[in-house]
Design goal:
The chain is of the alpha+beta class. 38% of the residues lie in helices and 25% in strands. It is built from 11 helices and 16 strands. The strands form 6 sheets. A 5-stranded antiparallel sheet has the order 9-11-16-15-13, with no helix packed on it. A 3-stranded antiparallel sheet has the order 5-6-7, with helices on both faces. It is elongated.
């Protein structure tokens, strides 16, 4: 919870001056911060989550809320808002106290919430870290030794007090699923680690991966407007979903029934969404498997006019062409006839010319 509130309240690059923290017990783990030493929030989180450094926890609390009591009040408000009904805080470092307690269920729920933050996932999956923003460079090692033993383990946080025993909130990713475990009250580190692995392996045994789509698989084939063909839409990437026994998987494809060119190859034109028990479980884009040109003028005309109208238009065109040809032929025959008449007219005689001028023969 200290990390959760600090991530909400503080920028990672901000440097905070360490207060004068006095350990209650010589067994406490510390980063060795001197009073007034300034360290970045990011490095303080590494010290807090990898090495369980109590002085880093107090520095974050003081930097986020101005004082430890104010920070603890914010921790309890946050726990209530998240529905962690079995949790209450009295300090930000987890030391034993009657008013400082939690449950395995609440710890797992809080961890799932925290794993939404990329920086948190990166920190708790780190084996070694170098802190450079203090007065001197510090090298720290993750106390969660399962990171070194099982490659699929990726978190989260160890703990130990006399009342709580050995504690480990673990996490791992296999078969596409990420699971969170919580072991409290173990008698030693070996029992804590063995119990964590047993819980996670049991959980993973309940899962399988369902292949919803392979990369490049044809999912839809919308019609190309004005063209007598279709355009294949394929999955842009493979989509595999972890499915627990008894869960129901539902696939929804959103793609157009018709598309119009020009379209570029791999242009996004749809989406496939997967839900498991009604909750989003993954999605993949649907892209054009090939490019598609714009329809030609004739294809557009052919697509816009019904077939009977096209036939009528073609027939009318043929008739008009015939009529025009016939008219041209008639005019040509007339010109030929006129030319022939003019050529065959007999020349007038002098006597005919005199009669034409009104003289009597």
């Amino acid at each position: 919870m200290t990390a959760y509130v600090a991530l909400r309240e503080l920028p990672l690059k901000r440097k905070i001056a360490a207060p004068d923290y006095q350990p209650i017990s010589p067994a406490e783990t510390l980063a060795g911060l001197a009073p007034g030493e300034r360290m970045s929030v990011s490095d303080l989180l590494y010290a807090l989550l990898l090495a369980s450094a109590n002085d880093a926890a107090v520095t974050l609390a003081d930097g986020a809320s101005g004082s430890v009591p104010a920070f603890v009040r914010e921790m309890n408000r946050t726990a209530a808002a998240l529905g962690l009904t079995g949790t209450h805080y009295e300090n930000p470092i987890g030391l034993d106290s009657a008013a400082n307690y939690s449950t395995a269920s609440d710890l797992a729920a809080l961890t799932r919430r925290l794993r939404r933050e990329r920086i948190f996932r990166e920190i708790v999956d780190t084996e070694h870290a170098v802190l450079k923003t203090g007065d001197h460079t510090r090298e720290i090692t993750n106390r969660n030794t399962l990171l070194f033993e099982a490659p699929w383990v990726n978190g989260v946080k160890t703990g130990h007090t006399l009342d709580a025993g050995y504690v480990l909130v673990g996490s791992g990713t296999r078969r596409g699923a990420t699971l969170v475990s919580a072991v409290l009250g173990a008698p030693g580190e070996a029992a804590r680690d063995a119990g964590t692995l047993e819980l996670l392996e049991y959980g993973f045994s309940l899962y399988r991966q369902e292949t919803v789509a392979s990369s490049g698989e044809r999912i839809a084939s919308p019609e190309l407007t004005y063209q007598d063909s279709t355009l294949p839409l394929v999955a842009d990437a493979g989509l595999r979903v972890p499915l627990r026994r008894g869960q129901e998987l539902d696939v929804t494809t959103s793609a157009p029934e018709e598309v119009e060119g020009p379209i570029e190859r791999r242009q996004e034109l749809g989406e496939m969404t997967v839900t498991v028990d009604g909750r989003d479980a993954g999605k993949v884009s649907l892209v054009a498997a090939r490019a598609a040109d714009e329809a030609t003028f004739l294809e557009q005309v052919n697509g816009r006019l019904p077939v009977p109208l096209i036939l009528i238009a073609l027939g009318a065109g043929v008739i008009l062409m015939g009529v025009a040809a016939a008219r041209r032929g008639t005019r040509r025959r007339r010109r030929i006839a006129e030319a022939t008449t003019n050529d065959e007219e007999p020349m007038s005689t002098p006597e005919q010319e005199r009669i034409g001028q009104g003289e009597r023969p």
